[in-house]
Amino acid sequence: MFPTHEGFTIPAQVNYVGKGTNLYALGYQPHGSANVIRKYLGTTWLWEKVRVQGGAYGGFAGWDRLSGVWSYGSYRDPNLLATIDNYDGTSAFLRNLNLSDDELTKAIIGTISDLDGYQLPDAKGYSAFVRHLTGITDENRQQLRDEVLGTTQTHFRAFADVLDELNRHGQVVVLGSAEKIGKANEEKGGNWLEIKKVL
Questions:
Q1: Which residues lie closer than 8 Å to 31 by C-beta, 6 or more apart?
Q2: Which of 82, 79, 91 is nearest to 23 (CA)?
Q3: Which pLDDT tens digit goes with each residue over 83-139?
């Protein structure tokens, strides 16, 4: 059994801050719109809040349709709790979002590009091998494309409710400075992050 939150200390001035959970375990039924939402967040909310305003080298959201794990991550991040607050603010951002048709179209096109990007022969073979092992059929792939292409702003707002559950049940893991991890524990009032020394 993993602890709820962990902090691994390293001799660095920056942090790598992650938060995630299995959305399927929280009742989420997979839909291709999650891929579009993940793509959109990486170029808007997370980019602006974690990278531009927060000063991290990068920030992103990840979505694994097979396992159901949605995750956030930052790297070379001077912040810790502020970054987690930004992750938790994603649901409110989606709920209040007024998405233009142009923005939605760009997010859909970017997602389709990820799904159907050009592959060299070795990559094609690997993809086919993975699909065989995981039981993904051509029908499954077409359904995903159809769901991606049919994504609307309503899907974005509905996903906010899903991310509210992540806010409550997500696991936090931090790789960072002992000072920042200790300060986070002080602010949270106790052993919020279970501290483990790496180096």
A1: 147, 155
A2: 91
A3: 999 999 999 999 999 999 999 999 999 999 999 888 899 999 999 999 999 999 999
CATH number, domain containing residue 120: 3.30.830.10
For the segment 168-183, what is each residue's pLDDT rounded down to a tens digit?
999 999 999 999 999 9
> Could you list the residue range(s) of the whole structural domain that residue 45 is in?
5-197
59 strand-pairing partners: 74
Inter-residue contact 36 to 115 (CB < 8 Å): no
Who wins on pLDDT, 104 or 191?
Answer: 104
Q: Rounded to whole angstroms, how far apart are CA atoms 156 and 115?
A: 19
Tokens matching residue 100: 């233009």
| Tokens 């995903």, located at residue | 144
Distance CA 44, CA 53 (A): 12
Please tell me the total count of domains within the chain: 1
User: CA angle 149-125-71, nearest 5°?
Assistant: 50
Q: What helix, strand, coil percent values describe the chain, rounded to 5?
A: 55, 20, 30
Nearest to 64 by CA among 22, 113, 124: 22
Token representation of residue 172: 């936090």
The predicted structure's pLDDT at residue 63: 97
Amino acid of residue 83: T
